[in-house]
Specification:
7-stranded mixed β-sheet, Chemotaxis Receptor Methyltransferase Cher, domain 1, binds S-adenosylmethionine, single chain, alpha/beta, 3-stranded antiparallel β-sheet
Length: about 290
């Protein structure tokens, strides 16, 4: 007889498959909250079961209790568990009105800066890099001559994420053909090169990007302020206290008039909301006199 995955009536488990009981789910949820501020609710039980079952198999463990005992005594497995439970869905030109705004409002400002100040943009939950390379392509332009404004300029894009595998993928910058489909042909032809396995971002785009592992709730080593920060589709995983804390820190990392782009179902709360002016759907500008 098949047993049912906890929290679902639709996913029968093979006979003898480990069951994720409430106590073990509670232990997982506490670790996710403590380590990543990710707020796991009961509706995620099936997902947790499926993703952690792979870790149990890898370690030859027969129960979630044994696995949680391992996690609680082994820092590396704890990190692996947190990584396994992150959701890394992303794509090129996701929520493309943000990139229209970047091209129409931020880019002209950067190009016309008489002081030629350093340009800094941060993709703060970058996943596998599609977001940061979309930003890179928008800065480089859809015609080689449009990239000339960068000559002699200090332009750097920071891409960070909690999950090491996706940060490595950002560094690799190799994307399957299906992944590249949303990229307009003019950008793709200029800034991506066909290779076995898909398309790789060309050196001119890769050289702009520094990819690092960074937990948004750990100390941030960056000293520079940012012209724009993308923090999209990650705050949905946090509770309101964590969101307010993070947003306040993000606002403090912006240059005057800097832009903050957040995900379509996210909103600004707490002190950050008072310092930012809305300038489009999920787009905010740091108000004068923060
Ligand atoms: C759904 S993806 C969003 C990717 C991209 N920003 C986008 O909108 O397409 C969310 C990312 O947030 C990362 N993440 C989750 N919690 C995090 C934390 N506490 N610190 C840093 N990154 C985190 C995950 O690893 C995942 O790659």
């Amino acid at each position: 007889m098949a047993t049912l995955a906890p929290g679902t009536s639709a996913s029968p488990l093979p006979e003898g498959a480990p069951v994720l009981g409430d106590a073990e789910f509670g232990r997982v949820a506490r670790i996710m909250q403590d380590d990543a501020r990710i707020h796991l609710t009961e509706v995620k039980k099936t997902l947790v079961h499926s993703r952690l079952s792979r870790r149990l198999r890898l370690h030859g463990l027969a129960s979630f209790k044994a696995y949680l005992d391992l996690v609680e005594s082994n820092t590396e497995e704890r990190r692996q568990m947190v990584t396994a439970l992150t959701t890394n869905h992303t794509h090129f030109f996701r929520e493309d009105h943000h990139f229209d705004h970047l091209r129409e409002h931020l880019l002209p400002r950067l190009k016309s800066d008489p002081n030629r100040s350093p340009v800094r943009i941060w993709s703060s939950a970058c996943s596998s890099g599609e977001e940061v390379y979309t930003i890179a392509m928008c800065l480089l332009g859809d015609d080689r001559s449009k990239a000339q404004w960068m000559n002699g300029r200090d332009v750097k894009l920071l891409a960070t994420d909690l999950s090491e595998p996706v940060v490595n993928a950002t560094r690799e910058a190799l994307y399957a053909e299906s992944t590249v489909a949303p990229v307009p042909a003019a950008y793709r032809d200029l800034w991506m090169r066909r290779e076995e396995g898909g398309y790789r971002m060309v050196e001119a785009a890769r050289a702009l990007v520094t990819a690092r592992v960074l937990n948004l709730f750990h100390e941030w080593p960056m000293r520079m302020r940012y012209d724009a920060i993308f923090c999209r589709n990650v705050m949905i995983y946090f509770d309101d206290t964590a969101k307010a804390e993070l947003e306040a820190k993000l606002v403090n990392m912006l240059k005057p008039e800097g832009f903050l782009y957040i995900g379509h179902s996210e909103r600004l709360i707490g002190p950050a909301a008072e310092k930012m002016v809305s300038c489009g759907n999920t787009i905010y500008r740091l108000a004068d006199g923060r």
